[in-house]
Amino acid sequence: LIRSINDPEHPLTLEELNVVEQVRVKVSDAESTVSVEFTPTIPHCSMATLIGLSIKVKLLRSLPERFKLDVHITPGTHVSEHAVNKQLADKERVAAALENSHLLEVVNQCLSVRS
Amino acid sequence: GVKDGRWTVLQLVEALGFCLENTDPRMRGRGIQLLSQVLLQCYSLLQEKEVLHLVLFYESRLQDHHLVIPSVLQGLRALSMCEVLSPGLAVSVLKAIFQEVHVQSLMQLDRHTVYSIITNFMSTREEELKGLGADFTFGFIQVMDGEKDPRNLLVAFQIVRDLIAKDYALGPFVEELFEVTSCYFPVDFTPPPNDPHGIQREDLILSLRAVLASTPQFAEFLLPLLIEKLDSELQSAKLDSLQTLTACCAIYGQKELQEFLPSLWSSLRREVFQTASEKIETACLAALHALSACLSRCVLSSDSEDLLDSFLSSILEDCRHHLCEPDMKLVWPSAKLLQAAAGASLRTYHRITRSVLPLLLEQYTKHTQSSQRRTILEMLLGFLELQQKWGHVEEDESTLLSLQAPVCSVVFSALTDPSVQLQLVGIKALTVLGSLQGFLSSSDVELVVDHLIRLALHEEDSQSSEAAMEAAGSLAPTYPKVFSGRMVPRLEQELQSGPPLRCVSSSEWDESYYNDCSLQQRCLQALAAVSTHTSIVRETVPVLLQHLQKVQKGTEARNTQDMVSVCQSLHRVALQCQQDMEGCWYFHQTVVPCLLAMAVQAAMQESTHMLPGKALLEEEVLAAMIPVISAATTHLSPELAAQSVSHVVPLFLDGEVSFLPQNSFPCSFQPFGNGECLEAQRRLVALLMAFVCSLPRDVAIPQQEWLLRELLALSCSCNCPFTATTAAKCFAGLVNKHPAGQQLDEILQLAVNRMDPSLAEGPRRMQALTLLLWVTKALVLRYHPLSSCLTDKLLGLLGDTELGPAAADGFSLLMAESLDVLHKGCHADVRIMFRQRFFTDNVPKLVQGFHGAGPDVKANYLKGLSHVLNHLPKPVLVTELPTLLSLLLEALSCSDRVVQLSTLSCLHPLLLEAPQIMSLHVDTLVTKFLNLTSSPAMAVRIAALRCAHALTSLPTTVLLPYKGRVIRALAKPLDDKKRLVRKEAVAARGEWFLLGSPGR
User: Fold this and answer.
1) Distance CA B529, CA B455 (A)
2) CA distance B873 to B878
3) pLDDT of B103-123, one tens digit each?
4) Which chain A residue's Cα is nearest to B277?
5) Could you give the CA distance from residue A59 to residue A9 in angstroms, rounded to a whole number?
6) The dihedral formed by the CA atoms of B89, B94, B97 and B100, expressed in degrees to the nearest 10
């Protein structure tokens, strides 16, 4: 699902950039949980939050409601790992971010199917 | 009057004298208008002297009042078409126009007249106009300056092109001429809606490009303009500039390009490295290709510094280092740039490969990750493919030849890599290397074959093994000896070793048994794949037939499956040797009698000894044999086919078995005979059908009438549905090709007489319906007059409670392409547009029938209709849509799954192609689609979700009210138990989320 998300800065997908990899995605259908670890391209990638947000939104839109989502950065690959993880885990902040039309626009661009 | 010659023009002028000299300009205008109209009608009748006077008159009138001018120009246009115009007049007319008329202040139509006059003169009086020298060019520049109407521009561009192409003197006005045309570049024109003139933006772009790229004289002005536009932001401007540059390179030389090369290169490089648009990238690469080609063309003729060399050096310098970083973004753009330049000429190729190939080889060994290696090998492959373009490897100059050993070792190492992706690229590279004449040494070829065998048989990933078989197939014609000497025996050996007897039934044994079976499958496939050369076919076909016989004797449960796969392999071989007369005949001669003999023998055994059914006679196996025989027959030449038909038909009619190998049979073969025990023999009609229906149309079939009667009887009387259907198909296939005439009519009458009573009642109604369907199809395809009568019968049956559903399904049979008989491939008489014709003839009847039908059979009509619509070409469907839409929507609520599915697949393209009409019904559509997403049938759910996805192409404003509802409803199929349904649901829901939100 998330492999085809576009990177906000490059004309490539997250899979092509190795931001998301199959081994770092854990799905448990029985427990209805999905856990995604993603690796920003460089340790101080300013887009890390945005990438995380895109992944989260894509999953929110594509998975049945019963799933609990957990999107976070692969440990040790980003300088402000905790801050970003905290932002992504916080439901209110995700919802608030999506109210912001500018942010939503960027996220939607990432999610549009490339022509 | 003037036309008939009763009046002369002079008399007319005299009669009009009063008008022509009237002081009121309006009256004068009317008079001249009349005269001009007359002249336009009969300019060809004028005498030289008359023309002279008229020209002088019109020229003087050019100074007249502006109201008069349009008519004057019309008159001059008429005169410009006269053949008898005396020398010098054309020049004086043009001079007068250039001097007296301010063209751009005229109306569009009158400006067009001026251009027509010029065009006419240019086509007839070229010499005279050239006498005017550069004045003519200058005059024209003034005429054209400021033109705005696209219609006129097209003409004007054509004139400029002719000016240049026919070598008129441009004199000092080159720059002016360039200015006056280039100001339109890049063309920015959108035709107004409902434009009756039909001028497209593309027309203007092309004609302007033809002007700009018509002469090297423009180069010094054009190239800076192109660079400037290339640097602009506008995509269309970039694209247009690149394409114009490409066009220019066809005529430019080194001199024109020299000054601008560095900036052109830097612009091209920037575009390729940065652009997100594929179109622009392609255009850039094409431009670079053209540039390099142009430079390499000029290089030989000049003694000055080697421009090409320095140009290529700068390309190499900028791109080379990117190749060393296979993980980075710029690898591919760089490789593409280099390949575009290298593909321009042999010279550029050598220059670039000399530098790049060693680098790539070195990088390959340096990087060890298979994904990086894959990228590098893919680039290498690109360069190798270019080498293919230059044909054989040249001894002295080629860098490739000197690198033969390292290239081979790199490719071989890729083949043994565990990564499938890398293997696939390696196989491709191998194919290319193999096709380079004289590149691989004989020991290398043997190594290649060994690698291919290993990959084809033992590689776990099916993708690689298939690719290896393909590669073997494409290399086999180049090295037939190696393949038939090395690969075929290996495969044969593997095949014969066969699955071991199952003595121990532990799970371990089962697994290895299974592996052996799949190995056998692979062997069969590989044997078929490699049979691309006649000499190899002669080796592989006996192996396959032998295997078939061996399997037939066995008793294991997998036999059916095995025989089907042998038949599939044989079919593939047959297809591969169709183009080759000799191979085709060999195949036909070997395979067809052998298959027939085996089948006949099996059938005899069954009918004499009442043995349990042999696997060979199972429907599946027979069905697999049909394409083999059919493919072996379709491409036979008429003489050979006639020879063959004289054996096969008597076999079935008289039991004449002498031509079959091993023809000692215990009893006689009589498939059309009566008798309980002959059931097995009757089934072989399938093989007869495969043969007889695939013959070219001009091959006469002996005893055709008798054969047809027997088939007819069999199809109506047989209890076994397989045999009856086959007989009906065979009958239909023959009828379709039967020449029209009394004989055909008699046969058809007989068929109808036979069908009617069985259709009405009795135990064999289904058989009769099948026969009816196939005969109808045969006749519909060839537009036979009887077809409408039969179709009406079929329409009538839709109302029948028992046969109705089957008849409705029959409509899909009528419209669909049939696989084994009655298609173009087997020489059937298929008229184009038969579907459209069937549609227009029968859909009104279907709709009418639907409205008149009882509730229990209404679904049949809908089903029939949706089958017809489903097979109709989409453009026709879209135009016919509005009348049928309400019926289709009704069909959606029909509970029949097939109807739902075919209606959905009908609606899907309509949603994409005719959103305007569909948006009128958006409410119904949304409701119906969402309901169907919870249908019990998976295919319906998928189709409904696809349609829901396609809904998003309707105008956003129409959809927004439904957004929330659809998103909520689509949450449910996200958790569907089928993966394919979930996939569609995700796609549809994602698209609905994006509707109307920013950043879409």
Assistant:
1) 13
2) 9
3) 777 788 888 888 888 888 888
4) A115
5) 21
6) -80
Q: What are the CA-CA distances from residue A8 to residues A103, B303, B333, B645, B993 (Å)? A: 11, 52, 20, 68, 19
For residue A69, the SS3 value is strand
Q: Is B273 on the interface with A (CB under 8 A)?
A: no
The CATH number linked to B961 is 1.25.10.10
The token pair that represents B84 in the structure block: 């008898």
Q: Give bridge partners of residue B664 from the DSSP assignment.
A: none
What pLDDT score does B263 carry? 85
- Enclosing domain of residue B908: 881-999
The pLDDT value recorded for residue B557 is 57
Sign of CA dihedral B924, B929, B930, B932: positive
* A7 in any annotated domain: no
Helix or strand or coil: residue A70?
strand
Q: Cβ contacts (< 8 Å) between A62 and chain B: which residues?
A: 974, 986, 989-990
Determine which of A5, A55, A62, A114 to mutate to test the interface with B (most B C-beta atoms within 10 Å): A62
Domain that holds residue A42: 20-111
Task: Give the nearest partner residue to A104 out of B329, B975, B999, using CB atoms.
Answer: B999
Give the integer Cα–Cα distance in Å for B487 and B476. 10
**Residue A13 placed within a domain:** no
Q: Tokens in use for B442? A: 């004989």
Alpha carbon distance B706, B716 (integer Å): 16
pLDDT in tens, A1-44: 566 666 655 656 666 667 777 777 777 777 778 888 877 777 77
pLDDT at B354: 82
How far separated are the first and last CA of chain A, in Å rounded?
17
Is residue B720 one of the residues assigned to a domain?
no
The number of folded domains in chain B is: 1
Whether B104 and B140 have beta carbons less than 8 Å apart is answered as no
Alpha carbon distance B578, B601 (integer Å): 28
Q: Tell me if B458 is assigned to some domain.
A: no
Residues 6+ apart with CB under 8 A from B664: none
Chain-centre distance for alpha carbon B459? 34
Which residue type does A13 have?
A: T
Amino acid at site B718: C
Q: How many domains does chain A have?
A: 1
Q: Is the model's pLDDT at B651 over the cut of 70?
A: yes
B889 residue type, one letter: L
Does A4 map to a domain? no
Please check whether residue A6 is in contact with residue A109, taking contact to mean a CB–CB distance below 8 angstroms: yes
pTM score, whole prediction: 0.70
In a domain, A14, yes or no: no
Q: What angle do CA B989, B993, B999 make, to 5 degrees?
A: 135
Note whether residue B805 is domain-resident: no
Q: Domain with A41 in it: what CATH number?
A: 3.30.300
Q: Which residue type is seen at B262?
A: P
The residue type at B398: S
Q: How many CB pairs under 8 A join A and B?
A: 42
Buried b (16+ CB within 10 A) or exposed e, A16-29: ebebbeeeebeeee
- Inside any domain, residue B147: no
Asked if B278 reaches chain A (Cβ–Cβ under 8 Å), the answer is: no
Q: Is A111 on the interface with B (CB under 8 A)?
A: yes
Pick from B186, B350, B389, B181: nearest CA to B283:
B186
Dihedral angle over CA of B315, B318, B319, B323, nearest 10: 150
CA distance B540 to B531: 7
The alpha-carbon gap from B949 to the nearest alpha carbon of chain A, in Å, equals 13
Length of chain A, in residues: 115
Q: Look up residue B188 and give its two tokens.
A: 């920015």
Amino acid at B835: R
